[in-house]
## 1
Amino acid sequence: MNIDPNSSSGSMKKDKRSASVHGGFERSMVAVGSLVTYLAVYAVKRSCSTVKCVSAKLKNGVRPLLAEIKRNFLYGLKKAGMNAIKCADNFSEFNRRFVDRMAEVGFGRAVALQTSDIFSAVKSSGRFAITFVNHAVPVLSIALLIMVVADKADADYGVTVAYNGQELGVVSEESVIDEAQQIIADHTDYYDTGSETYITATLSLKPLSAYDEVIDEKMLAAVVQEQIETQAPVQETAPQEEETVDTVDIYTDDEETETPDDRVRAFMVTVDGEFVGAVEEYDEIGEYLDEIKDEYMTDDIVSVSFDKNIEYTYENYVMPDQVVDQQEIIDLFSSLVAEPVYYEVRKGDNPWDIASDNDMSVEELQNCFVTYEGKQIDDITEYCPIGATIQLSEEVPYLGVMTTKEVTYNETIDYDIVETDDPDMYQGDTAVDVEGVEGEMTVTANVTYKNGEIVSRDILDEVVISEPVTEYIRVGTRETRTPVSEGSGGSGEYFWPVDGGYISAYQGDGRGHKGIDIAAPYGTPIYAAESGTVIEAAGGWNGGYGNCVKIEHADGNVTLYGHQSSIAIQYGDYVVKGQLIGYVGSTGDSSGNHLHFEVRSNGTYSNPLDYVSQY
């Protein structure tokens, strides 16, 4: 909210007169305080002097002091009596003289003559005047100080409210500001994840005077609202569109007298800062949004909100064609919109499962925009690497509902892995010395869902049930005769035996096919699916397999790699998982470049897809 720095000249003059009067009073109080302080210090000094004198006499002995006190007391008493008699005589003489003069010259002249005699007597008796000042003035000053303190203690105080450096008024207590806050908030409603309107004011305590007017919460709210400068939200135009989007012309209350007759006053509705229409009232919209929230509110729900910030601004003047019926805004909120949804290919995924899980056909999936490492993939069914991003599209509600509930669940704690090099093992081989064990903990969190999907977690508490156990692994560093692939090699138990490629024929397929065919360009590298010993590396026709390699593994299985263009290892070699063993070709009984891959288990032909997966 912005405060208008301008105010009426009359108010400024009144404030200046008030400030002048208050300033003069404060300066007078400072002067009186200074005088009182001086006189009090002087009285203390006099008292200290008397005490010092008494102390000195005490040093000379108690008996002489008593004698001196007795003598001074009797002398003082005698002198006081004589002074009293003298004062009585003087008063009697003063009265007699006044009566005689009044008889001779009249009352007025007699008073003047008597006053002149009094001042002459005081002037001739300097010690009397000094004695009077020394004793009477401190007493009078202390009395004045007590009167000032008592007056201030009985004074009423108020809270001055200032906004952006401008004083708005004086309220009786701070609770008035909270009530004014609520009044202003009633003019601006929010339906987002927790936005609120606040009055950010500077407060100070001041004594109230006759010039101060104490205002209530309604007056304060009105003063603050008058200072708000309303700006028109501008709709953003998409880059590909060249349509002109009308801005909303808004007039504040200060411009009300200059508002054209064709403008009307209405509440502006914005969604995430974008103007969607103006309404004369917003009660039906508010009821609709509250009904949506009520549908989701259950005992286990902490809060319900929306994924968009819906705001009704304070009333402003807009063009009539910008005013719409509340139902039109409600229809917008309840509509469905197309929204891109992104899917990242994970370990174990393949195009057919991805299409099925997203209620799509494989053909529809092929038409989606797919990228991998910044490059577009033309056909996801031919190349579907882990980490590829697929842009799916689906209709979602215009207004997403976000619910937050407190959830307690168990979560695993990952264990650390410590690797050490072993020069006696081949590159690519590993051995686990100590198995890692995941830990477990109980987590309490506020989980936020959007349309049923988890979007965030706010962890409230974590209690560890069991600590994880670190895994220790030995990694082979002994060089092999051929390179070892650094790629993931797929997601199956065995390594995907070809650098890329796709399955062109499956096991069985109605013609007794004993393995799978993986189509790939001529010369594509072929890798060992698992570590083991080469039990065959033969060329020629070789029963239709052409250039063929067989590897026996520790689990008892044998893998076969047929139709190679050339072989990179030899009979008897020990190879590790992912090690280069040859290249794709079309030797033997083959009609095109591909790798024929088999997995034989105890003399039977197993389905290779139970062991390997490209995706």
## 2
Amino acid sequence: MNPRFITYSVGKLLEILALVLFIPAGIAFYNLLPEGYPAMLLDHRLSGFIIAILSSFFCGMILKLAGDREISGNGIREGFAIVAFGWIVLTLFGAIPFIVYFLGKAAAVDVHVFLRAFTDSYFEIMSGFTTTGATIFEDVESLPRGLLFWRSLTHWLGGMGIVTLALAILPAFGIASYQMFRGEVPGPTAERLRPRLAQTAIILWGVYALLTLVEAILLRLGGMSVFDALCHAFGTMATGGFSTRNASIGAYNSSFIDWVVIVFMFFAGMNFIIHYRVFFGRKLDLLKSNREFHFYAGVLVVAVLLAVIALGTQGIVSPEEAGASFRPEPLSASALTEKISVEKEKVSSFYGILRHAAFQVVSITTTTGYATADSDIWPNFVRFMLVVLMFFGGCAGSTGGGIKMIRVMVFLKTALREIKTIIQPRIIAPIKIARKAVDDKQVMNILGFIALFMGCFVVLSAAMSFIIPDFTTAVVSVVATMCNIGPGLSGVGATENYAWIPLSGKWVLTLCMLLGRLEIYTVIIALSPISWRK
């Protein structure tokens, strides 16, 4: 491992962050113009961005001067370390605007207030960069626009990848470039579209930006403001889920907006290489031959049908059942009755059932986390199915989290092969995807990943069960953050938030978000003592 090269590379990433922060800082500056100089510069809604920009830029310069741009060896360990430490450090500096905002609002600042502000800010920005969408804000609509835009922008940056952006706009990082690309791009493999990684990164970001722009235009036509349309397009294409409204997409109560978001969530859960080759290469046959895409679409169709049937036959749960579900602040009898009435009205017709079932299934499966209804008071079968879908996630090469569809396919095919070999011991049955055999080493990599993922899930769920009194909330909070979804069930359900969770629990869930977004291997390799030995 070459620590000085890692230091130099993280410094370059910090300089990029400083430039990006000018965008939300500009929005904050514009909104504070009526207050005049110099008061606006000292306002905690703007000063946090100024501090973040200056500290990111100067710390980036220092790290570059202390580091070394040259590297020897194959760069494998360095590449993974740059990705892991890059995300940790960028989250730290990206959290500064929120830290200053919280401290500026506090009546008095002491150690406890600072620790809470630091923890909540780091949690929120890690949730943004990892496209998790788990928020600590109870009233999102009270936030100033600069901070609202920044949290949505972190989604968009993290969706395609901060390091991938660096590879697109900066000179090559040398021989560590591919490992950086591999460590950040979701999925078991990182496919190139061009011989040079910088070209591949530019293409991916180009497709990503184009789809985001098209969705923003459609949302604007659907009645959203330009600001809200951009923020929700960022959250959709990044499969993030941060909204500018407390009721998420449901606040707009628009059938047009719901279907636009559903379509683009579906696009975001696909491999972006398919988008490029279909839209620009006109290779429509790719949609016919790509087995992962077929599996992805099939899972969504079946899940929507099952949800429609369950909602159509069972409907919303009774007030007694809804009231028994754990909530950090239990609803009063009148509030609960009103909530049940509103949710029943949403699924009172076949079209209403289809619209809301499709939205929630696609949102959860693609790990976006937007909501138009409180699925936590839907039939238990649907709640269970949604939790299972959290593990599935999107396709490899998408912005979605979870285990990924291709890994689930290989896992199921491997299990079926083992059953066949027990019945017919002499049979030779390689794992095939689209009639092509998957290399045994790749199969073992996938099985190892699933084993590590489930192992981490068990250990972290056990840790959360010590911190959170409700077992369902403790377990589902780990699923929702490790799979980068955000909303879950009970205390972290579709209409709840993570503000009430103790500080220790927030740090556990922050680790879950990082492990989920960087897909475990990257973090383990970066932090393993073996990687740092010469």
## 3
Amino acid sequence: MIIKAIVIAMIILSSINSVFANDTLYQNLAYDMLNIVAKKSMNNKMVKVAIVDDGFRLSHKVLKNYIFKNENEIPNNFRDDDKNGCVDDIYGWDVSDNDNNVGIIEGRESEFKHGTYIASIVIKVFERYYGKDAPKYLRIIPVKVLSDHTKSTYLEEGYKGIEYASKIGADIICCAWSGGEFGKDEKAIIDESLSKGQIIVSSAGNFFTENVNYPAKHDGIIAVSGVDINYRKIQKANYDMRVDICAPGDSIYGAYPTADNAFTFSNGTSPATAFISGCIAILKSLNYDADTELIKDALFLTAKPIDEFNLTYAGKLGAGFPDMDKAVEYIINPDYKFSHFNEKLPEGKVLFGPSSKNQTRLINPIGEYRGIHILPIKIDNSAQLKIYSNDSVFYEGKTNEFKTGLYIESNSITIESGAIKGKKNSTEIKYFMQTIDSTKLFCNDVVYINSDSGIITDGSGENNYANKSVCKWIITASQNKKIKLDFTTMHTEPNVDFVYIYDGDKSLQENLLAQFSGANKPPIITSNTNQVMIWFLSNDFITGNGWELKFEAVESVN
């Protein structure tokens, strides 16, 4: 297949703070947050994780014991022994330069830094579970997709790298980048890989916006966003209903390719993608025969919901944050899935196992939603099923009659499954919350106020106001009065997000009294008439704590 040259915007590493010659800081909170607890298992298997990226320092102290060796190739005989189209691809492949050198040319280490960094995070996550035994169960397949001769650091052949990783037999393919052209050729590569049961993990994007970029946007790929140590979405990370899960993405420590013992900090959804790839590698190694769906269930259904820390993004950060202790239990204990359920997950599965008693599950995620979608997955018994919304029965019938999905305009529902007397069958129901337009979460449209005094606020309370807010308040006081506006708080993105004050009810330039932005308290403003319009606008990116003002009608003095 001829693959078009594509340019993929790498989610990189925007800034390198410093380089360190030791890895003691690996024992940091970001790794601790994953709650990785080793448990005994007799079925551990070797897992191969392909890192599709810019280049690799294979001799780095973190990477050197984990590099995959292609046993189907005879080294240095200048032949394609395994007939995969690549000559002597012993330790990975450079698809851009069409050779077996995945290393970094001398002098360009600071440009080709991403692959080494990402690989090291995957390894360190894996080591948290296996310790000194980790090299027995993990191999990293380095796939270089940036030419030695390029002048830019954009990945040029990322999808071609996925194709190679798939053919060489990777179990997991880590794509800590996003962007670029996605046409039928790229889709065919992804579909072929997924059809083999390979798990692809990709970055949602670092573009501050409600969107998931390709390849993560493609069905079947795990889309990852990033949060800080307080579980709050990092500023630049994308968010969307298509996001599957989040991981640490703020000031993450990893290997740096300038030396075998060099390390650095960076941030974004790239390291978050590496964290999730490492988590999946652990689960796969513990149950190698598990299909992709079971791996996803183990990771997503046991995750820690984080919407309470991200109300603006409720339902748009996937299942939340990994809890690997629970995920491991899920993957090694077949019965665990029936006893574990978290009502706060904004999307997931309701699993009812064989039981002689009625079983109930409450779905009650934090945040505001338009409603909830219910979809049957496995309905193969004759037990009764009831779905309650606001204490009323929304649906009632036998589970084997529940064959189509439902949409319920509610933030909370209860599902009850009747007794399954002695049967081994089970009922599985999938659900996901329908999110609301975050731009209208706190304020929206026009609010008309006919009063001589009161308080107006952006509405976000303790949260930051929403991106892309467009909100207006039109105050009309008593005749022959003017309106005094006194801001009590003011915190918006400086010179970007503004509160405009107009005389009258129209946003005409000649009626503009003032415009305020930033964190300084504005002066008191008094209108020329008994009517004032307040107009609040924010952009796509950074938000602030918001603002509040008091208004009061005062005597008009001629």
## 4
Amino acid sequence: MTAQHQGIRTFPRASKVLLIEPPNSLTVGFNATVVVEPLALEYVAAAVSDITDVAIYDMRVDPMPLADALSRYQPDAIGIREGYTVDVDTVRSIATAVKKIAPNVPIIVGGHHVSLSPQDASIPAVDAIVVGDGEIPFRNLIVNLQKFGRIDNTPDVIFQDAAGRFDDKNVIVRATTSLKQFDSAVMNERPIPARHLVDQYRPSYFFLYHESPYSIESARGCIYRCNFCSVHQFHKGAYRVQSANRTLDELQRLPRNAWVNVVDDLAIQELPAAQKKQYPAGFDPMEQMAEDLTQMNLGQRYWMQVRADNVVRNPKKFEKWARAGLDTVLIGLESFEQADLDSVSKGTKSGDNERALEILNDLGIRIWGAVIIFQQWAEQNFDHLKSKVMEHKIEFPQFTIMTPLPGTGQWRDTEHQLITREPRFFDFCHSVLPTRLSPRVFYEQYASTWRTVGGGGLDRARRMMQEVSTSKASVSRFLRQYRTLSSLDSYTAGIEMLERAQSQQRPAGSPAILGA
């Protein structure tokens, strides 16, 4: 056990750190078609690489058993990422198993979900929880372990005290802001991600049907307030973009002709009015970056997340990005029905969706269209969605069932209606709220929506295999996942859960509420 002196827990000095990416706990879901490098851990690793020996253990793709990994790396401190609600049980299991094997090693959990709902990692096996962006607090925590063997004195770190209570007195309370900043010093000062730590895993990563992809992050946060999304809550409303020069430098470090996943929640944004005076009249840094990339001729293909209204306002800028290598965009359509858009505070018009899709199709930019399936839908709503997907040639549709997540307005509004608190069902492919349609009809409609687009047939498969970053195996894997999504058998547990909820007020034996 760890030493205790006057109520303060102490640990051995940390000289070797192991960062763990938990295994994918999704049984079904479009997200299972994307397994990319753990960029968040690469940033954290880079932040401590000059003061400790650090390694990354990616349990999604590494077949090495956990006990063997601990024996191999012999870490003095362990960090586990908890990015999604569905990871909650998996992270608890990993932490508990690690503590049994290495009881004196401090276990630190961090990530998007646990920052908004730290109670979900407040278990005996977890010693500390990092809140918010992890680079600075994790480095400070490791420094404190090295100097003092303590974890109770680090800003933005919740720690377990000697009595087993979790103390959040060191978490800095930050006010919500509307900051929108380009060439952000905070972003520019981040370390370059330690991608070399996952070189051994690179052949196992894929993005849709693209093999060995890379990821970069040029912006953090979001200025919008969609009530189903917790990004603005996590970043306290701020939106920061690193300098164009840093982004171009990072891209030059990646292989030519690589598939590059730009993980920004809001890409290709316009300058805020307050910063326009810092640049020549009419200058747009994102437009200039597209021109620079075209000149650099790296041969890379890019995937980004964008908003429909941004596309509509800036068709010329997206034309330049198409020439620069923008291949596919995830566009948050959410719905083609205005009432649905208003209900989630999207701040766009259904006409924006229609026009944005037309612009993107004309530019040859492929569309990953993200659409929400709402519990109040009737069969005609599903029919309307299917027709729109076909009409607008959405090549990669993503149908996510409305799922309230901790930290969102949806969570606050619907928490009392939840029919389950089990983290595994918060995968966006199961309804955790009651549905207007009967359970079986709802899931029949959901599965049939996936079947409408299916895999696209042999012609589509042939086109995929002609791309430089694909193979027959990667295309086959991608199409198999689509077939899984379109099978009603994939949703048996969801049907049973909804049927059970209809017959009784609350499922018997429901676990403690997430975030409570």
